[in-house]
Amino acid sequence: MPPAFRLRPETPADEAFVGALLADMKAAEFAPLGLSPDQLAPLLEMQVRVYRAGLAADFPDARRHMVTLDDGTAAGYLAVADTGTALHVVQIMVAPPLRRHGLGIALLATVLDEAAARGLPVRLRVAPLNPARRLYTRLGFREVGLDGPTLTMQWG
Predict the structure, then answer these.
(1) What's the pLDDT at 145?
(2) Cα R_g (the chain), whole angstroms
(3) Domain CATH number, residue 61
(4) In this structure, what DSSP letter does residue 3 have?
(5) Which domain holds residue 111?
(6) CA pair distance 93, 25, nearest whole angstrom
(7) With bands split at pLDDT 50, 70 and 90, how would you rate the model's confidence at 26?
(8) Total domain count for the chain?
């Protein structure tokens, strides 16, 4: 059973936590390069800035949520855009210590429930080698296209 959680709007005070989650995600992508921490740090800073700017440009009206446990501990991040014809999971991240405990599935379930109630599909983009791709497939997402280096998947 996943830990109990709450969603609240992201605030400027959350920037460091969200940046750390993004840096962790990007560090995994760069791991095969074998860079030293001194080489990796500035690269990650730049990647996080570029990534956040790109998401803001692509989905300016996305609902950006901090995920917190019932005790207030920051647990993750969820951003969802409503295009009118679909809900788009712009970003979903779970803090490393809480991964593989069902929180990601529970977060996706909140989006899928909203979409089902409104009769909308859910779309997301994922890197082909991202382990989350298997989770999305298990939940009923199917590949519907390629957008640059990422796959577009859809549920419903």
Answers:
(1) 94
(2) 16
(3) 3.40.630.30
(4) P
(5) 5-155
(6) 8
(7) confident
(8) 1
Cα angle at 136 between 18 and 85, to 5 degrees?
85
Q: Which residues pair with 49 in a beta bridge?
A: none
Beta sheet of 63-69, edge-to-edge order? 5-9, 63-69, 74-82, 87-94, 122-126, 150-155, 142-147
Distance CA 145, CA 150 (A): 9
pLDDT of 29 reads 78
Rounded to a whole number of angstroms, the distance between the first and last alpha carbons of the chain is 25
Give residues with Cβ within 8 angstroms of 87, minimum separation 6.
80, 81, 111, 114, 115, 118, 120, 121, 122, 123
Range 41-70 average pLDDT: 91
